[in-house]
Every structure is written in C-alpha cells, then in structure tokens.
Specification:
This protein has 552 residues and is α+β, with helices and mostly antiparallel strands. Helices cover 25% and strands 28% of the residues. The chain folds into three domains: 295 residues, Jelly Rolls (Sandwich); 62 residues, SH3 type barrels (Roll), CATH 2.30.30; 67 residues, Nucleic acid-binding proteins (OB fold (Dihydrolipoamide Acetyltransferase, E2P)), CATH 2.40.50. The N and C termini lie far apart (56 Å). Bound molecules: 2-oxoglutaric acid (AKG) and fe (ii) ion. Belongs to the eIF-5A family.
Length: 552
C-alpha cells in the first residue's frame, strides 16, 4: 500500500482572507481523578514495510476496540499547527457569526439532520432552556451551497473543506482498513460496502461546536450533564482531544471517566453501525458530555468532530465474510447488535441506517428536560442504577445516565467554587488572577531571573494592580462567570433582571458611567435589553448591554 500523503491544506494567507486570531489552548485541568487510560494507536505504522509492525498495529487496535471500545489515534497526517488553525477557524466563527446568519441558517432537527446552526437553547429548533451549546454542522447540501454557510466563514471554506476531505478520505479510510483487517475482511471492505460516499462527508457531517459555561439553573436542571450518555449511530466518529475535559466514556467497571487531553490526538468512537457489522465484536462507545472539573468550569470549550456515516439505504447485519466472525461467532450479550438480532430473529426488518440516525436526531431530548429525565419517563432503575431508556422503531436503547459517581467532584466544587490555585507559570495575557485580594485580568507578564512580575486590571473597578511572584510559586485564580439576563425594569439604583427560567434577580446595581447611562437610555426608549453580568468572589457587576434578538 502506498504511504498516506500528509494533509496539505490551502494557504491561510491567500489574498482576501481576513486575519484569524490564533487559537490558544486553554489550561489543562489539575484534576487527576476519574480519567480514563486510553490506548494510543500510531496510524502511520500502517505504512510500515515490516509486516510484523503492521500485524502488531492490528493486534493493538483489536485489543483496544474489543476491551475498551475507544482509542486515541496519533500520527494520522495532520500537524498540531494545522489542527490549531482549524480550531482558530471555529473560534472565529463564534466570534463573528451574525445574528442574521444564526436565524437564516437555524437547524431543523425535526428533519432528522443537524444541518446548519444550533442555537444555545437545546436540541429543538424552537428555543427551550439554555444549554450553552452552539454548533454549526456541515452536511452534503451545506458543502454544495456556500449560501448555507455563515458568511464570516466564506473566505475559509477552502481550508475547512480540505480538512474534512482529508479526515474522511485519508484518516477514516485508513482507520477502516485497520478495522477491516481486525475483522479479517479485505482491506477496503468497510470503506467500499458500509461507508457512505460523496461530498466531503458523504451522508455524515462535520461540526464546529462551542460549549459555553452554563448558569446555575441549567447546571441544576441537568445535574451537570451537557449531552446525555449515548452511542453515535454511524460508523466511526473522529473527535479531537481538547484541553477542556468534558467528554466522558463509560468504562467496563460501569463508571464514567473523563477522556484526558492528548494534544493533536484524535479520539475514535465506534458507532452503532460498526457494532452491528462486527457482530458485537466491536462495542459502540458509550459516552457523554459532562461538566468539567472545578478549575475548568469557567472556560469555553471548542470541539471539532467528524461523524462518518454508513450508507443510508442499508439495513445492517454482521459481515458474515469476516473470518473472525466465522471462527468465533457473534458476541451477543449487550448493546444495539443484540437488539437488532432480536428483531431479525422474530422475522422483522431492522431500521435502515438512515431511519436509525434520523429518528434519534428528530427525537433527541435535552439534559435540562426535567419532565422526561425522570424515572418512569425516559429513565429506569436497573440494579439501583439510573439508566436512560428510549425505544426507536422497536429497538430498545438503554444507556447509563447515572450521576452518583460525580459526587466527589460536586463536593470539591462546592469547596472551591470561588477560587483555585495554579502555577504562576501557566498564566497568560488576559488570564484571571487574584492580586491583593481583588479579581483581576492580567495585562502584562514579565519574567526576570527567578521571579515573575504581573500587571493586572481589577475586573470590576478597572484599577491597575501589580505583584511580584517567585516563578515556581502558585497564585490564586478567581472563577469568573458571565451571565446574560433580560432586563425587566429599573428600580432606582437596581436592575430588575430575569433569568432564562423566569426567576427574578434584583440585586445587581445599575453600573456607574457610560454603560449605566446607556442602559437607562435604551430602557426608556422601550428596547428589549439583555444585560451581561460578571461575577467573581461574591461580587457582581453589569458590564454590557445589548438589544435582545427577536423572539427572545
Ligand atoms: O463534543 C464532544 O466531545 C462530543 C460530542 C458528542 O458526543 C456528539 O455530538 O455525539
Ligand atoms: Fe457522540
């Protein structure tokens, strides 16, 4: 097999491309508990001329997939710099997308596709409770018509499309070769017979996602969940390992574990299709998105994902040509394969791949949905554990939805909800830090010999403060949150605000100066206003005002 060519994207500085600020990975958590140990696979070994090296690679994947159901992939042909450019483009999208584009390109999940822009108010087109998750998803029609893409990204579609093409046609194709070999099938079996083709993503999709920190009400309604425990419905999912630890996987010991950050690595999820095709030898990866450890609660999380889909018209069954299946039979004990098998043994048709994915998208529920997320509704108790149970076209899906494992984090967070400590060396420009008891934002950092000189600005008063810290020492960091509220009234010196779930909040003062004047002026003019409030260390201040989008 010819060695795989590395990713060679179009240039970032062609004429007409606006400047895109760099993406700086946020600091990694200091939390060490509840992290999974994932096996890491070096994909470049597939090109080795030594058959023993290739055999060893296949064995490693076999063990990782059959034991754990997930793995890291490294050396797949994209450099860290190229990857960071793609994250910078996602960051650029969320800093520049217009309100008009959000409205115009709003997704239609009822259609069974996530195509377009997802607002941060749940997984229905109609706005529900805030979930802080924004997404843009590219499906076939979105690649084919530039008008279906946010205008701010138009100059960069060459790079985004090249990246998705490389991920599908090079990385995923090689990964499917490895998986075909594990099943002892011809190299291109999964690529030729199961993977959907055409456009950069076939019937699958590519995603830019942004998870913003959530407010207390969302956190309480969802119990820390950002996305329910689930398996992906397609063939494979290629997720990029990110510094903000939210992705968790369900271990064999029936506990949730965070996926650690491995810069540049891909996290590979096995989807339902592969579980079925492999006759249960591959387990679809059970995963969810959960709140991060305490020291990352205030950070935004960008996530780039490629979902590889199976051919929509196919109904999946085990690949009986597989020598592995012929020799060892199928593995029946659990999961979607078992449920599909149940249907076929009753002489019933299983759903097509298209039906299977579209029904799950169209009926997806939110972690904030306190009506459905109850035992008796979408939850059941099995052996004392809370499980999420749904039925799609006669196929029962039961997945863990249990919270109790995270109590140690909960206690930790209560304790450390205002501040935490971090080595001064990890501070960057614009990072938060406490200087002389005040929450500040760093404006300058200078190293001299064994000490670091910090200059910072009080986030509430704007006053400049400075400090000298030993370069190996740690400093206190405030947890700074930014919430947006609707302005209902102004009561002398106080704002009467309303939280997204309708609770009144009347303890924030009208700020002094220009912003205060503007709030009063716009309110008197009858405008619907959203007020951003910054809070840190039990202090709160209104910091900006904007007009609420229509339909808010
Ligand atoms: O953003 C992530 O890390 C995972 C998202 C995910 O699991 C999904 O959308 O299926
Ligand atoms: Fe997923």
């Amino acid at each position: 097999m010819a060695p795989a060519a590395p990713f060679n994207p179009p240039s970032a500085d062609l004429p007409g491309k606006p400047f895109v600020p760099e993406w700086v990975p946020p600091p990694v958590t200091r939390e060490k508990h509840n992290f999974a140990e994932l096996k890491s696979i070096d994909l470049s070994l597939l090109d080795s001329e030594d058959p023993a090296v290739v055999d060893d690679l296949i064995q490693q994947v076999k063990v990782a997939i059959r034991d754990d159901g997930f793995l890291f992939l490294e050396n797949y042909g994209v450099s860290l710099e190229q990857l960071h450019r793609q994250f910078a483009l996602a960051q650029y999208l969320y800093n520049n997308i217009s309100e008009e584009d959000k409205e115009r390109l709003l997704f239609h999940p009822d259609s069974g596709k996530w195509s377009g822009y997802k607002h941060p108010y749940g997984f229905k087109r109609h706005r529900g409770a805030p979930d802080g998750i924004e997404q843009f998803n590219w499906y076939k029609p979105d690649w084919e018509d530039i008008n279906r893409v946010p205008t701010c990204l138009h100059p960069f579609m060459d790079e985004i499309e090249a990246f998705s093409n490389y991920l599908t046609k090079s990385v995923n194709r090689r990964l499917l070769t490895v998986l075909s070999r594990v099943l002892e099938l011809p190299d291109d079996y999964l690529w030729d017979n199961v993977q959907s083709h055409g456009s950069p993503t076939g019937e699958g999709y590519f995603r830019h996602a942004l998870f913003r920190p959530v407010q207390k009400q969302t956190q309480e309604a969802s119990k820390g969940l950002r996305m329910h425990g689930h398996t992906d419905f397609g063939l494979t999912t290629l997720l990029f390992s990110v510094p903000i630890s939210c992705l968790q996987i369900w271990g064999r010991d029936e506990q949730w574990y965070y996926v650690p950050y491995k810069p540049g690595a891909l996290v590979i999820n096995i989807g339902d299709t592969l579980e079925i095709v492999s006759g249960g030898h591959f387990k679809a990866t059970r995963h969810r998105v959960f709140r991060p450890p305490a020291d990352q609660l205030h950070e935004e999380r960008l996530s780039l994902v490629l979902f590889n889909s199976s051919i929509g018209d196919l109904r999946m069954a085990p690949a009986h040509d597989s020598k592995l299946i012929q020799r060892e039979g199928c593995v029946e004990e659990q999961g979607v394969y078992k449920e599909f098998k149940k249907l076929t043994s009753q002489g019933k048709l299983v759903p097509t791949n298209r039906q299977w994915r579209e029904i799950q998208i169209a009926t997806c529920t939110d972690p904030t949905d306190t009506v459905n997320n109850r035992v008796g509704a979408h939850q059941v108790l099995i052996d004392g554990k809370v499980m999420h149970q749904r039925e799609y076209m006669g196929v029962k899906v039961v997945l863990p939805d249990d919270e109790e494992h995270s109590q140690t984090f909960e206690q930790h967070q209560e304790h450390a909800s205002d501040t935490y400590r971090a080595p001064v060396k990890t501070l960057r420009q614009r990072a938060h830090v406490i200087i002389r008891g005040r929450p500040c934002q760093v404006t300058a950092i200078r190293s001299s010999g064994t000490s670091i000189h910090l200059v910072a600005q009080d986030i509430f008063t704007g006053r400049s403060l400075s400090d000298e810290v030993g370069s190996t020492e740690s400093v206190d960091i405030p947890i700074v949150r930014r919430h947006e509220y609707q302005l209902v009234n102004i009561d002398e010196d106080f704002l009467n605000l309303m939280t997204p779930d309708g609770t009144a909040k009347d303890d924030v003062k009208v700020p002094d100066g220009e912003i205060g004047n503007q709030i009063r002026q716009d309110f008197d003019a009858g405008k619907d206003l959203l007020i951003a409030v910054l809070s840190a260390m039990s202090e709160e201040q209104a910091i900006s005002v904007k007009e609420a989008p229509k339909g808010y």
